[in-house]
Each structure stands twice: as structure tokens, then as C-alpha cells.
Structure prediction request, 245 residues.
Amino acid sequence: MNIESNNRFGYGFWFNGHHSTEFGVDVIEPKELGFPAKIKQLVEIPFSNIPLDLSYMYQDQQYGERTFKWTLLVRDRSRMDKEGMYVIWTKLVNWLENTQGKTKLKDDVMSDYYYLAEIQTATSWEEFRYHGKMTIEFQCYPFRIHEALEGNDIWDDFNFELDVAQETKFDVSGSKSVMLFNVGTPVASPTIVASAPFTLKMGNQTVTVPAGTSDSPDFVLANGINQIVINGIGTIEFQWHKELI
Prediction:
């Protein structure tokens, strides 16, 4: 059996409080990373060959969930017998299955992003003499989520291809016009931390923000540049994580 392992440099993934290499397993190629499909809302128009696409009615294209599949080479390196292999097998499957709902899954590749994932389908097992292949499939939220908040100043982690340097915290004395860049794919719903009440005007929409930490379903950042006029006196900060496919 020809097995190509990714584990020569300790490659694996973090999930449910552990890294896969803690169990002595190797990740076998190929890794299967699924992409989310768009959920389209099409309405047939009488006497027309072109359907009406309502998918963007609320500013945001919806996506279905994605799958992430790994195959692991399982063996007890110290004993090299079936009993040892079954002990590793038992530890693995109980680690991976013992979650309630989706939890953070982080691939070692581009590890500054994470998925929200859960194993929902049965894990498959193919057994050989002293080793086996375990195939696991995660059901994931459509987008990868960046670990750091937007506007962070962690320069060593800055990616010139994907990130944007911007201010997300502002001192306001009366009125201030600011720009926030949402370089993620879906709209972002920031948490707002304010030292005093403010009003936010974006386009034709005005939202009142109380002092303290709050979230408003009426205030979202569309993909791209968002021009906002802030009225009030004090400090206000917008906190959100970039999400990409």
C-alpha cells in the first residue's frame, strides 16, 4: 500500500483541545477540502427566460455548509500490535466525537484562520495488520474565521495579500466621519464598545448605540468600504473577525 504522509514536519490539525499529532497519527494524502455552494433564491418571471435572483435582497449572499475530510494513519509506534492500535483508535474516535455542536477546527496550513466544525457522519475505519486508516469528515460553517480582530496591530502576522491595515477605534468629539473596510466575504456584524451613547449614520440608515458593549442587528458592514458618520462624545470601537471562503 502506497501511503504518502504529511506528518514529516508534525503536520496535522487542532480540534477539541488537542492536536492530532498528540495521538501519534499521520495525516495521509489527499486531504479533501470542500467549498460552500451558494444558496440561490430564484423566482421565475412570466414571459421571461431570465429568473429573478432574490439572493441579495438582504445585502448578503447565503452559502451552504462545507465539508473537510482527513484520513489518518493509526498505529501504536511503541508496540506495533493490534492491541496498541485499538487503544489509539479508541482515544482518537472519542476525542473527535465528544463535542456538542460545532467547535473550533484549525488546520496547520494558514493556521491564523479556523473553521467551526463537527463530525456528524459516521467515521470510517480500514484495518490492516498493525495499522489502520481512519477517515473523518467534518461538517463546517461556510467561512473560515480569522483569529485576530480586524484593526489589530500584530504586524508579524499581517498578510499583504488578504489583510487591510485600518483603525477600528475612534475618539469622537461631536461628529466624525470614518471608513471601515470589510474585506471578508459575508457581511460583518461588529460588536460595538462605546464609552457613551452614540448615533451611527451609514447611507440612509441611522442606528443608536448605548454606552457599554452591544450588538445591533441593524448595523452590519457590507463587503468593501463602509462610510460611517459617528455622532457623540467619547470613544467607540468596532470589533469583528474577517471571514473568508
In short: The chain has one helix and 18 strands. Helices lie at 82-97. The mean pLDDT is 90.
